[in-house]
Amino acid sequence: MPRSGRSDARAVLRAWNASTVVRIGLLLALWGLLFTLALPHARPTAYELKVGEPSPVTLVAPYTVEDPEETQRARQRAEAGVEPVFRRDDRITANQIEVLERVFAEAKALASSNLPASGRIERLKAAVPYELADEVYTAMARLSPQTVEVARAITVNTVEQILLEGVTDQATGVKAAREKVDEQLVRSDLGRSVRTVVRALVLASVVPNVFYDEAETEKRRALARSLVKPVTIEQGTVLVEKGALVTPEGYRKAKLLGLVETTPSPWPMLGLAGLAAMLVAILWATLASTGKPSRRDNRTLLMLVLIAAVQMIALKAVALWGLRTYPYHGFVAPAALGASLIAALVGKRVALAGAMLFATLAALLYNESFELPLDFRYALVALAGSVAGVYSIGRITQRHHFLLTGFTVSGVASAAAAVVVLLTARHGAAFPWPELLMAMGFAFAGGWLSTVLTVGLLPFFENAFGVLSSVRLVMLSNPNHPLLRKLLIETPGTYHHSMVVANLAEAAAEAIGANGLLARVGAYYHDIGKTKRPQYFIENQYGAENPHDRLSPYLSKRIILAHPYDGAAMLKAHKIPKPIRDIAEQHHGTTLLKYFYHKAKQQHPDSEVREEDFRYPGPKAQTKEAAIVGICDCVEAAVRSMKRPTPSQLDHLVRRIVKERLDDGQFHECDLTLRELEVISRTIVEALIGMFHSRIEYPADVRRDESSAAAR
Questions:
Q1: Over 60: is that where the pLDDT of 576 sits?
Q2: 50-59, 67-76, 96-105, 678-687 — which is least confidently predicted?
Q3: What's the rounded Cα separation, in Å, for the pair 638 and 695?
Q4: Torsions phi, psi of 238, nearest 5?
Q5: Longest pairwise C-alpha distance within the chain
Q6: Helix (H, G, I), strand (E, B) or coil at 267
């Protein structure tokens, strides 16, 4: 395929891999499969019941549900207990006191005037806004200024007290005023005229100032309703006893739970939908929280969905199998298959989240209890076997180690099955030997079935998705591999260089959360192309004449530029997985062969020497591991030419190489961040200080580094 065609295909693949729509679609597909497989097991069984007739079964609430009728009655009782709210209007009190003050001020002024009695009475009638008896005006006109002041104080004080206590209606107010006035006047030594005036003005001034607050009352009633907790029918509540007459209340509750209807209740379906969504969300969140660029890696998510689909279908097949007549039949299911595959292909953290999902599904599919929708027995055994598979799969270094994994998974699952049988044994019964042996036997078989299926399916997922498991990587790192033996025998200098690069790359990759084992194995094979023309690379010359001294820079650069692609072709011929081939092809990216570029410019000063002619064709590093191997490859070659460098010199060298590659755009197509580059630089320097030994120094720094690069 032409380079442009390959670039277009890679662009399409990157777009698909980072598409949010594709990601959402895959998650919805996983949710739909989980919901569909578990739905028949989440619905409660419906029974035919009639009020007043004996019940054929004992009905127990399979889950907790709100009783809307009882809840409504409780809320009505709470609302009825709220007292009406009344508000006092103090503006009315102030207004009444102000009127009294004006009346008595006028009376006091008239008492000091020379007006005749008739004139005073007319003036008082005009000043008082109330309709009073004539005898009241006559008595008021006869009062002296001092007596008017006494009457004012008593009247104002009495009215103020009554109104501050609140008057809800006129009748109540007048009655209270009369009682208050009588109480005040009995204790005083006032004359008859003053008593008449005070009583009349107090009774006239007392008006309703407390009114019903409908809005506040409704607000408090609404609050009282909201504080009432919903009345529920608790899970496990006996609704109807077998043989007992079905009461209207028992029938109503059974109907509410969907136990007497031919159409199943939608609430268990809604609960299952929520459970499936929660489990898928946990799985996705765990995948996205790993150090890998999983948030934009739909290929990994697709593989995860397919593994989950295989696991769920296997669990469903056992649920439909005829073994249901046997107790603990679900223990034979390969429940550890999915978690083991995920651990080998994605990571342990994601595998543990997957184990939780598969254990929950097993608890749904194999549930034999009407009281609970989930059977903890199957969840416990499935989870125990899955966790054992997750942590044992990582210790595999050879194929025969799968036997150890099989025994580990089977043993842990059998132990969990024994615990389950003992936990659920009836009190007072004999030791449950038959159940114990059957449960442990099923669990042991299920563990081995999981291991066998993992061995069979692992290569399929590796080849289909180009993912290397730790098992395959460890096998490829075996020094007896034909390509590594060829590298050691034909190019021992390159072999040593690759081993050093591997140590640096693994440390740097692990420091930023990348795949350290992939970086190590990729470094082992990254320069395998040098075996085609070993004498043209300086680490294999051992002091002999450098053939590049006799070649034109154009011919030399063709030889040097070819080795990544020669290596990729050799790796493909030996069926080495693509991630390792990619590291071999991409570790130089599109960097410039500076030494031969400057040599060509010196030899041809009068002609144009294009920089593009002396760059590697690429592609640039597409993964963090490829970029790290490229950095370590350049660093190792440069350090090899230094003589007794100090730590500060090593630090300066590493950071200069990283900066040059960054400025040259070599990291634009991978997900390395500036922070990760800083961590990589620091880790490489620390590793070099630990493993450093003296190198042959070239005459000049620039030519030293460039000639090293040229010889690669």
A1: yes
A2: 50-59
A3: 9
A4: -75, 120
A5: 147
A6: helix
Cα–Cα distance measured from residue 221 to residue 235, given in angstroms and rounded to the nearest whole number: 31
Per the CB < 8 A criterion, the answer to whether 334 and 450 are in contact is: yes
| Span 439-454, pLDDT tens digits | 899 999 999 999 889 8
Long-range contacts of 451-456 (CB under 8 A, 24+ apart): 451/336, 451/340, 451/389, 451/402, 451/405, 451/406, 451/409, 451/410, 452/406, 453/314, 453/334, 453/337, 454/336, 454/337, 454/340, 454/341, 454/344, 454/389, 454/393, 454/402, 454/405, 455/399, 455/402
Per-residue pLDDT at 710 exceeds 50: no
**Higher per-residue confidence, 202 vs 188:** 202
Sequence length of the chain is 712
The label of the residue with tokens 């100090």 reads 646
State how far the Cα of 58 lies from the Cα of 67, in Å rounded to an integer. 20
Q: What are the pLDDT digits (tens) for 611-646?
A: 888 899 989 999 999 999 999 999 998 888 787 788
**Pair of tokens at residue 425:** 């044994």
Question: What distance in Å separates the CA atoms of residue 384 and residue 382, rounded to the nearest whole number?
Answer: 6
The two beta strands, 65-66 and 232-233, are: antiparallel
Q: Are 476 and 521 in contact (CB under 8 A)?
A: yes
**Band of pLDDT at residue 93, cut at 50, 70 and 90:** confident
Name residues whose C-beta falls within 8 Å of residue 272's C-beta, 6 or more positions apart in sequence. 35, 38, 39, 42, 364
Rounded Cα gap, residues 625 and 639, in angstroms: 21
Nearest to 586 by CA among 534, 639, 625: 625
The pTM assigned to this predicted structure is 0.55
> For residues 345 and 458, is the Cβ–Cβ distance under 8 A?
yes
**C-alpha distances out from residue 51 to 58, 68, 213, Å:** 15, 20, 47
The answer to whether 338 and 386 are in contact (CB under 8 A) is yes
Give the span between the Cα atoms of 444 and 53, in whole angstroms. 48
Tell me the residue type at 675. Answer: R
β-pair partners for 232: 66
Nearest Cα to Cα of residue 687 among 484, 516, 472? 516
Q: What is the pLDDT, as a whole number, of residue 692?
A: 63
For 415-465, the three-class secondary structure string (H helix, E strand, C coil) is HHHHHHHHHCCCCCCCCCHHHHHHHHHHHHHHHHHHHHHHHHHHHHHHHHH
Is the predicted pLDDT of residue 572 greater than 70, yes or no?
Answer: yes
Spatial distance between the Cα atoms of 508 and 685, rounded to a whole number of angstroms: 10
**Residues paired with 233 in a beta bridge:** 65
Query: Locate tokens 């350049």: which residue?
Result: 634
**By C-alpha distance, which of 168, 108, 90 is closest to 144?**
108
pLDDT at 476: 87
Burial status of residue 535 (CB atoms within 10 A of its CB: 0-12, 13-18, 19 or more)? middle
Instruction: Lowest mean pLDDT of 34-43, 585-594, 649-658, name the range.
Output: 34-43
CA distance 550 to 599: 13
Could you tell me if 94 and 64 are in contact, meaning their C-beta atoms sit under 8 angstroms apart? Answer: no
The C-alpha atoms of residue 290 and residue 283 are separated, in whole angstroms, by: 11
Query: Is 60 strand, coil or helix?
Result: strand
Closest CA to 644 of 572, 694, 587: 694
Q: What percent of the chain has pLDDT over 90?
A: 26
Separation CA 493–CA 696 (nearest Å): 14
Non-local (6+) Cβ contacts of 252 within 8 A are: 69
**CA 157/CA 145 separation, integer angstroms:** 18
Question: Cα separation of 15 and 464, whole Å?
Answer: 19
CB 146 within 8 A of CB 176: no
The mean per-residue pLDDT over the stretch 182-198 comes to 76
Angle subtended by helix axes 298-320 and 266-288, to nearest 10? 140
Determine the Cα–Cα distance for residues 259 and 348; give it in Å rounded to an integer.
Answer: 42
